[in-house]
Structure formats: structure tokens, C-alpha cells
DNA sequence: CTCACATGAGATATGGTTGTCTCATGTCTA
DNA sequence: TAGACATGAGACAACCATATCTCATGTGAG
């Protein structure tokens, strides 16, 4: 019945992506179960958040897999990665801020792994001469997270059309604001 | 004695920039006053946050002033703006996440004003042919906030040298990850 | 000096969330 | 049918932060 707890987790992720401050009760309702049952699955809020973090790592890892970041040009790989990540942007944004709020280093293992994979993509782009070498891969990775989260907030604010979000993130991240010089 | 309440507000901003979840008691201590006195200045946490929001608008507005965004090339103006904004990045990041958490529209007036000023800068850059026209100014403004906040978090994580932060934000925002094609 | 006023420290009450428990109900299987 | 098991609903205490109040202290102005 591990499937059930994953369903609960998914529902929690979906809710918290929209309402980061939701209570355990709200999470339970959103998952279609009672608070008691939720507590049987996850000992407390900490346990829930930790499990959500692990889920986030898994989701993101799947995105990196699906994007096949090792294939083709690095810029195309980044494009594919962002496209893959957008559907989970809200959830990622939740974990992103949660990570800032609590400065502990738990579950660093998983995140470091994903971070390394994405950083590796940017590093490859630099080695192949496609990306600028003066921007650290770790910073580009952070920027990717930040822009994805920001675009999701813009979408939720109604200031950005959902269908435009991937392109706007990609174009800014890869190309920046400056027009390409004709030189 | 409005100066005093501003000092308290500044101290609160400084603390919350580093510790977003700080309690009223911690804020009071950080400001060098007691909880009771803090409560005399600001009726409650909501009032404090609201006042902090107003302070943030003021600070950011001063940054836009100091950057003289109307003068020189738009890209140089963006550079100056980011340089100006970096010292208050932590405070801005706090308000940035706070703004996501509570979805109300209070004090929108002030923010809209600042947003418009910054958006105007990007729009000018587009009209002068320096910036790419396909990225909405509002999105570039959001991205600026997001990248500034992200860089501050990286600095606090010890993953980025404080002195590098402005350059990394500027270079990514303006130039993106892609190397300039020699074509 | 004395009064007015601001402050600090502490006590208290309140609200909201959490963690834990019990009990009744539903469901599935032998 | 009987038993095992999971769940829902609710009660309950505990905790945390907040909000409010009182009282003693200190300081500055008159």
C-alpha cells in the first residue's frame, strides 16, 4: 500500500504548491483523508515536509532523465529540461522557499545529486563552448530554480500565460535581456 | 520621534532578511527594545509586516533613484540598479517570499509604482533596440527580483562570494548563459 | 524635587496548530 | 458470520506565538 501514501504525498504537494502555509488538516482534506489518517502515514509535519522533499528530488530527477540532458547540444538540453520542469514548478517553488526558511541540511544527499546533474549540464555547455565560462554552473542552476519559481508565481498572479512560461524562462536563462549584437 | 520607529523598522528588516521566521520577541530583541514596546510601535505582526513592506518600497525606490535609470544606456542603467539593490537584497528576498505566502493585494499602490519604474527601464531598453522585444518588461522585472533574491540566498549559503553577486546577477540577467555567437 | 511619560519585565489570556488518544464505522478476507 | 484491519470523527492536552495588561523603573522637563 505504498501507493496510497504516495497519492497522499502527491496531493499534499499539489496543495502546498498553491498554499504553502496550509495546515495539516487542510492537507488531509486535500488528500481526501482525515487528519488522523494523515498522521498515521506521516508522524508529523516535519516528517511530511521531509517526505515532500524526497518526492521533490524524485520528481526533479525524473525531469532530468526525461530531458536526456546528456544528449544533443547543451542549450537544447536546457530547453528540454525547463519544459519538463514547468509542470512541477509550483511544487518546486514550495520546496525552494521551504529550503530557505529552514536552514538545516537534511536530505542534502538527494538534492546534491540532482544539483550536480544540472550543474553538469551547464558545465558541459561551457566545455563545449556553447555557454559563457564566467558564470559558475552552480549559479546557473540556482538561477534556473529561481526563474522557474518566479514564472510560476507570475502565472498564479495571472500576470503570465501558462503556455508562455517555459519559453520566457528558457529565453531569459539562455539569452538574457540583451539583443544579440549583429557583430 | 518617528525616527525611532524607523530605527526599529530597520532593525526588523535586518533581522528578518536573515531569519524570515523570527518571532516578534526576536524582532524586539534585535531592535534593542522589549516586546511590549515593539507592540506599542506596531499593533501586531501584520502591522509590522505592512510597515516593512512600505519600507521596502521606499528602499527600492531610493535604489531606482540612485541608479538614475533614465540616464545613459538601458543596460548600464540595469547594471547600476542591480548594484544599488544588492545591499538590500536580503530584505527584498524576505518581502519577496512574504508576498508569495500571503496573496492579498494590500499596499499594491507602492509596489506597482516601483514595478512600473523598473519595467519602464526595460521597456526603454527595448524601444532603443538594446533589449530583446520578445521578453515582457514585467517578466524581466520579476526575473530581476528573483535573481537578486537567489543570489542573496547563495551568498548566505556560502556558495557565492558577496563581491561576485552583483556581477553574476547582471551578467545572467542581461547576457544569459549562452556565449555570444561571433556571427 | 516632582510630575509626566516612555520603557522593560513579567504575568496572563487567547487562538491556532499540532500530537495523541478513543471509539464507532466500514471493508475485506477466511 | 466472525475477525482483522484501516479509516473517520471527534475529544483532549500541549505548545507556541501573539495580544493585552499591570507594575516598577528610569529619565527628562518643568
TrEMBL record, chains A, B:
This is TetR family transcriptional regulator. InterPro entries: Cro/C1-type_HTH, Homeodomain-like_sf, HTH-type_TetR-like_transc_reg, HTH_TetR, Tet_transcr_reg_TetR-rel_C_sf. Residues 2-60 form the HTH tetR-type domain. The keyword Zinc does not apply. Keywords: DNA-binding, Transcription, Transcription regulation. GO terms for molecular function: DNA-binding transcription factor activity; transcription cis-regulatory region binding. Residues 23-42 bind DNA. The keyword Transcription applies. Gene3D superfamilies: Tetracycline Repressor, domain 2. It comes from the Bacteria.
